Amino acid sequence: MIKLDKVDKVFPGTTVPAVDQVSFQVDEGNICVFVGPSGCGKTTILRMINRLVEPTGGDIYIKGQKVSDKGVNPDYLRREIGYVIQQIGLMPHRTIEQNVALVPRLLKWPEDKIKPRVKHLLEMVGLEPDEVAQKYPHQLSGGMMQRVGVARALAADPPIMLMDEPFGAVDPIVRGRLQDEFLRLQKEMKKTICFVTHDINEAIKMGDHIVIMNKGRLVQHGTPMEILSNPADEFVKDLIGSDREIKLLELTRSEEIVEHTDEIPEVVNKKDCFIQAIDPVQRALETMMKKDSDLVGVRDGESFIGTISWEDIKKHINRISGDQA
Ligand SMILES: Nc1ncnc2c1ncn2[C@@H]1O[C@H](COP(=O)(O)OP(=O)(O)OP(=O)(O)O)[C@@H](O)[C@H]1O
Ligand SMILES: [Mg+2]
After folding, report:
1. Residue of the CA atom closest to atom 17 of ligand 1
2. What average pLDDT does the segment 152-173 reach?
């Protein structure tokens, strides 16, 4: 769907490449998260995909079409790609309605199609259209502005979204909520998404695929599980942090390691120590600690399906974290 082939960017007046020989592919309907320290080239990659920055070398393809050619029609890219820019970037002297309607108006949609579209989008991102549409950006909270930024990028219903730290400007609680809502939306939308963050936890939560960058270079890419279970080098290990095992446990569902049995052990019943099959293994661990039990019962809806013990969790950690632990 999106493919970069040995892409370079050397900005004029500099010698060190901002992006250095980067190749990867984002499959249709996937979220690909770019993560890495400030200045490693994340924003530059997004801006080369939508041609706001010209690569100095290599090729970029969207749906098999080379877009790093001069001849590409800007309207084509606007239709295909929604862009949530870093720091939100709403136009301060335009209302929320005008901000969200920006791309449809550029694409000359008829006005009677734009109004209902804006209303629908604001609702979709969890805002009350009657309340916010005629307001100006400074009258909204940070979290509301980030929602408007997402609505604006979705306005022309592009199959591709570039999202540059879309939830960066809010506190961790609001951020977690925006992430959850966005993942729920994405289940229906199935957009192809390039998502930038410098927060590895956000990358693990949001990404089908993660691209780790450092100093313009691609250091490692893979699924969150692949990266956590097999970090390529010290840089990636540092980025992941010391709680690698805990993060791995968040990626595994309890049903994957449950020991099936029909009988509910007495201790589990007595301590009322239960979790759901779809809960991450991390939840099993937390529940055991909270209930002071070394065994947790697993239910699928109402029905009991088996148990997980400390030993099961330890074995699981050893299995997935290989020699690196
Ligand atoms: N227009 C430009 N002219 C010259 N250098 C630039 C330009 N834009 C970016 N750079 C440089 O390119 C490098 C990569 O910048 P980029 O904005 O892509 O980083 P980033 O990973 O998005 O960082 P952050 O996490 O801080 O947003 C940096 O060294 C930056 O100074
Ligand atoms: Mg950036």
Report:
1. 43
2. 89
Query: Is the pTM value of this prediction over 0.70?
Result: yes
φ, ψ of residue 298 to 5 degrees: the values are -115, 130
What ranges do the domains of the chain cover? 2-241, 253-324
| Tens digits of residue pLDDT in 179-220 | 998 999 999 999 999 999 989 999 999 999 999 999 999 999
For residue 322, the model assigns a pLDDT of 63
Residue with tokens 């309607």: 101
Token readout for 223 is 């699924």
Tell me if 117 sits within 8 A of 156, measured CB to CB.
Answer: no
- For the structural domain made of 253-324, what CATH number should be given? 3.90.1280.20
Nearest-atom number in ligand 1 for the CA of 11 is: 4
Pairing mode, strands 65-66 and 31-35: unpaired
Contact between residue 303 and residue 294 where contact means Cβ atoms under 8 Å apart? no
- Cβ–ligand 1 distance for 39 under 6 Å, the answer yes
Structurally, at CATH architecture level, domain 2-241 sits in 3-Layer(aba) Sandwich (3.40)
pLDDT at 7: 97
